[in-house]
Amino acid sequence: xxxxxxxxxxxxxxxxxxxxxxxxxxxxxxxxxxxxxxxxxxxxxxxxxxxxxxxxxxxxxxxxxxxxxxxxxxxxxxxxxxxxxxxxxxxxxxxxxxxxxxxxxxxxxxxxxxxxxxxxxxxxxxxxxxxxxxxxxxxxxxxxxxxxxxxxxxxxxxxxxxxxxxxxxxxxxxxxxxxxxxxxxxxxxxxxxxxxxxxxxxxxxxxxxxxxxxxxxxxxxxxxxxxxxxxxxxxxxxxxxxxxxxxxxxxxxxxxxxxxxxxxxxxxxxxxxxxxxxxxxxxxxxxxxxxxxxxxxxxxxxxxxxxxxxxxxxxxxxxxxxxxxxxxxxxxxxxxxxxxxxxxxxxxxxxxxxxxxxxxxxxxxxxxxxxxxxxxxxxxxxxxxxxxxxxxxxxxxxxxxxxxxxxxxxxxxxxxxxxxxxxxxxxxxxxxxxxxxxxxxxxxxxxxxxxxxxxxxxxxxxxxxxxxxxxxxxxxxxxxxxxxxxxxxxxxxxxxxxxxxxxxxxxxxxxxxxxxxxxxxx
Amino acid sequence: xxxxxxxxxxxxxxxxxxxxxxxxxxxxxxxxxxxxxxxxxxxxxxxxxxxxxxxxxxxxxxxxxxxxxxxxxxxxxxxxxxxxxxxxxxxxxxxxxxxxxxxxx
Lengths: 522, 105
Prior knowledge:
The complex is a heterodimer of chains A (522) and B (105). Chain A is of the alpha+beta class and 522 residues long. Chain A has helices spanning 3-34, 37-44, 57-71, 121-131, 137-161, 178-191, 193-206, 208-211, 213-220, 223-234, 253-264, 320-331, 337-372, 378-407, 415-436, 439-455, 457-464, 469-475, 478-519, and strands spanning 77-81, 90-95, 101-106, 269-275, 283-288, 299-303, 309-313. The longest helix of chain A is centred in the last third of the chain and has 42 residues, at 478-519. Chain B has one domain (21-97).
């Protein structure tokens, strides 16, 4: 690699990272939280009882069907999700003739509906990283894809810029200003490099049917029809079977359950769904709960009226194998607890890599300013403020989301929406603090606020619900306990940040005093 | 109108021109390159049409990244544009010549 080529990549890396760094930080942080979306869902719905063992699928199916019969006798599509370790409740959802979806969580033991609070839960946090909020979905997909493309370029140029990638794995020189920030940026980038590359590229693949439509249309004709024909061709997506309008009794669902359990073993069904219920073209789908690893979990399709097998959706074929594998790698749904934490930590490393990169940009320029004695340029001030408002402000906003979940009145109208508004309003407020306060002051105050917001979250939880940390640990409810403990850990992290900023400030002050003393006439 | 020419020339050779080349030109190149690849895979029957297009889509972002890096590495923005336009035109031309629209459904 020629020296000239490497040199040209330095500004490319800097600017590719800086222009969308704040968006990337947002995408990485919310996406990382998404690895525990189901667990956050549970913490945000404390009404769902803690359970580790469940009745048989057949019993639960009976209860779910009874409930559906009571509340949705005329639904033309119904879904029944069985509980598992991560989601310890029975879930039914249905679509009525007016195309409105409803869903309910049921107690697996009794089949009684659980009245849960209205919340966006962990799903909302997870969806933020590609769906954003307050924006039309397609615009959000394009924005997120564009940011991911910048990220991909930043990763590639970052690798090129490196002279000694292996040595950087073990190099950290703390408390040396710019040098330390660069070391930290390198260590975070290099140790989790495979994850960064994988997550960025697979993220682009997730949205490629939206962002690269030209290619599909060139081969399959323009518009949505062309896309549909491509999907049938390339994804071997089963063709729809519309209702015939002829009534026919759908076979009892237990028949389909037993056939699936004969094939996969007892307790192995994740969901059963019925499409066109009561029609001669009814389709029953039974899905296996065991993860398909990097492929897909098997799904059996039946003719609802006759009980005949219609087909099996199993492993993807052709180029779709690669796509499905990339998507699975991205989502990590197959991961057990240990691997899930590893995913989470890698995501945090990526988030921190972006944050240190953003900060490094300002440290470099600040130092130049200080040594030459010139006042900081507007660009530098702007980036510094945006950094504070994003790096510390976003976590504060997310904490506010959790607080709102515990503190907003349970019967409030639009409660879930207001949890979200609380998060964004708080975030905007942190930007205001970052803009108006002095630089060090803003770092200090917002970090202090973040430390308090996370550190006190277990207290709020213990007061507002009967599922406080001590109760959770005592009954072995590790999802609730881990959430509270993680909140404390995040709080401690921000406390350390407060101490670090304080120490720096003190050093700077003593530096000024000794300088003044030297200059004083003696 | 002579003073206009150097202005345009300077604009075309500026940093911003290079940025536009990388972002928009890079996208165009990615489409062209993956189109060409898909058409070759489909014409030579190495893969079925659906898989060919799918492969092109999956690789398009690698083409995109490569184009961006090339644009940022060459000496001048004008040269970057020249390379980009030429490569995109050739690949797009060949790709569309080799494509039989309509898929295989």
